[in-house]
Write a structure and sequence with these properties.
alpha/beta, seven-stranded mixed sheet, two-stranded antiparallel sheet, binds S-adenosylmethionine
Length: about 210
């Protein structure tokens, strides 16, 4: 299977998030949106079904979603969202005022610090990383453990790594430009903010490919 069943259909993913976050998957995305200035351009990496867009559509019309899963990208495009197929591991991150990544950094272990630095190089103002640190894989409920395991199956690869609170704190405190961290999602997640390093005067990078 190229993607875990969690990622087979947007409805499955959305339903799972309602279950995981006790009926309110939106609260932690509201927290992310609160960190984004009105009118800022946003590049949202690993956007999934784009819960973040739902919080930003009025406030930040210049929002772009990027994801490796073509099914999810097509779903977003059908909803009129500016969405693109994209592999964070290999593609150059387009410039924006704010670059975000929600619930996805674990996919890039052991290169998470490098990915954050690449995000910083493309962000003119800030980088926002929201990450689960109490994972469904450790739940006492078998169904939740199954969901957690399925969330690690992407592009034909199984990822066994998930952050603990200590591992996430260790990573962010050893990443230059780290600003602050706060609990999110009822304490299941952490929200970390970093400086952006991209020049504030430059236009989108010339090496930015034309995404479809
Ligand atoms: C747990 S979901 C998070 C989705 C969304 N950000 C959210 O918080 O609801 C992880 C997402 O990362 C995407 N993803 C995994 N590896 C990727 C990669 N190398 N490049 C781009 N997207 C990737 C998956 O397709 C999936 O949509």
């Amino acid at each position: 299977m190229r993607f875990g069943f969690l990622y087979q259909h947007p409805w499955i993913y959305d339903l799972a998030l309602y279950g995981l976050y006790h009926g309110d998957p939106h609260a932690r995305f509201k927290q992310v949106a609160n960190e984004i200035p009105k009118g800022a351009s946003v590049v949202d990496l690993c956007a999934g079904t784009s819960f973040l867009f739902r919080q930003l559509q009025e406030k930040c019309p210049n929002y772009q979603a990027f994801d490796i899963n073509p099914r999810l990208v097509k779903h977003l495009q059908k909803r009129g969202i500016n969405a693109h197929s994209f592999d964070v591991r290999t593609d150059a991150i387009p410039q924006a005022d704010v670059v975000t990544m929600c619930s996805s950094l674990y996919h890039f272990h052991p290169n998470c610090k490098d990915i954050i630095q690449q995000m910083q190089n493309s962000a003119r103002e800030k980088v926002i990383v929201l990450e689960p640190v109490h994972n469904a894989k450790n739940s006492r409920f078998a169904f939740m453990r199954l969901l957690g395991a399925q969330a690690g199956i992407v592009d034909g690869k199984i990822n066994e790594f998930y952050f603990s609170p200590d591992a996430f704190q260790d990573l962010i405190h050893h990443t230059s430009g780290f600003q602050k961290v706060a609990p999110a999602g009822d304490g299941r997640d952490m929200l970390a903010i970093f400086d952006g390093h991209a020049s504030t005067t430059s236009e989108p990078s010339p090496q930015t490919p034309a995404y479809s």
